[in-house]
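Weekly modeling sync, notes
Attendees: AB, CL, MP (scribe)

Item 1: holo prediction request
CL wants a bound-state model with fe (ii) ion before deciding which constructs to order. AB pointed out that an apo prediction alone won't tell us much about the pocket. Agreed to run with the ligand included and paste results into these notes for async review.

Input as submitted:
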Amino acid sequence: MNLEITNRILENVLYRQELQKLKELEKDRIFCRHGIEHSLDTARIAMILCRENGIEINPDIIYSSALLHDIGRSREYTGKIPHHSASVSIAGQILDSINCPPDIKKSVISLIENHRNPDNDRSTPEYIFYIADKKSRLCFVCPASRECYWSEEKKNLKIEV
Ligand SMILES: [Fe+2]
């Protein structure tokens, strides 16, 4: 399947710049990083969970949201702006510059905006995306697990399906 919007994001100059900026800011980070590997893990887990839960969603929306959901993280490090808000702002600029259709933009922005919201309705893609973001983390092999602020219940300490 051709992920049209996702691949336009991938080639976008602003996206690449922000991704590079984030990579540099996180190069010495001992906790989870927010590079493209994390984005793709989140997208793939979200796709599986959507299928398992009978939630119909265009995969291009899931993958686009995954690429962009943490893209504002650098502004949290440098400007203390919550990264979901910064990501919404940067994602909006990127989606406009690649001529993303308004209905897809609206869905992508909603997934980004709610990716840290534990109160999402459980029947929504927003909830699935929130869970996939957390499930993508490999706490069971993380050397910084002890210092991590996540509670023991929240950490992924076992491999699950
Ligand atoms: Fe994330």
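Recorded for review: Residues 34, 38, 42, 69-70, 133 surround fe (ii) ion (CB under 6 Å).
Action items: CL to compare against the apo run; MP to circulate these notes.
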